[in-house]
Structure formats: C-alpha cells, structure tokens
Specification:
There is one protein chain. By secondary structure, the protein is α+β, with helices and mostly antiparallel strands. The chain has a single domain, classed as Arc Repressor Mutant, subunit A (Orthogonal Bundle). It contains 6 helices and 3 strands, in the order H-H-E-H-H-E-E-H-H. A 3-stranded antiparallel beta sheet has the order 1-3-2. A hairpin with a 5-residue loop joins strand 2 and strand 3. The longest helix has 13 residues.
C-alpha cells in the first residue's frame, strides 16, 4: 500500500476541525443559498451568545478557501454587497467518501 496525501482533503478536514465551522456547514448543507446574516442570526440563536461579525467572516472565509463553501456576491451599488453561501459539490463528494455525510434515506436502514 502507498499513502498519497490529497491537499484538498487535508484542507477540508482542517477547515472542519472547529465547532463553529461545523455548525455553519450543518446549517448550509441542506439549503440552497444562505445569506451571511441568516447564518449569523441562526448561530447566535443556536449557541445562545453574540458572535462578532468579523469572527463569522473569518470562519466563512476559511470554509470558502478550503472549497467547503462557495460564496456568491450580490452587488447593489445603491446599498452594498451581500454574501450568500452554499456547499460545494467537492465538499459533498469528499464528505460522502469519508462517511461523514449520510443521506436521510440511508439513516433508516
């Protein structure tokens, strides 16, 4: 046998090695696009304390850089830029291969 490291999988695993980032992925994994504000509000409610927006942005950036999430920007020159996030096909594929993502129909078996 030979061990071959896949830098993409290593980045994905390192990105998921944080409880807040896991909660973000858990929220987004069964959704289409989720806005920054919706993620922020949901997590604050879930953990029961305030989360600094800069901290949220930092964790979302790590998930985007590691190809777990995809960021879509909606630029409105009159207002400002809004970010929305969804899970990447790459992340779904790797999480399934690692046995970390189980579909609802597989849970009943």
């Amino acid at each position: 046998m030979a061990f071959e490291s896949d830098i993409g999988v290593i980045k994905l695993l390192k990105a998921l090695d944080n409880s807040l980032r896991l909660k973000i992925v858990e929220l987004i994994i069964n959704s289409s696009l989720v806005s920054f504000s919706a993620i922020h509000e949901h997590l604050e409610h879930q953990i029961g304390r305030e989360i600094n927006r800069g901290t949220m942005s930092y964790h979302l950036d790590i998930l985007v850089q590691s190809n777990v999430l995809h960021r879509e920007l909606d630029r409105n020159p009159e207002v400002r830029t809004y970010s929305s996030y969804n899970i990447t096909d790459y992340a779904i594929e790797k999480l399934e291969a690692l046995g970390l993502l189980i579909h609802a129909d597989e849970q009943t078996e």
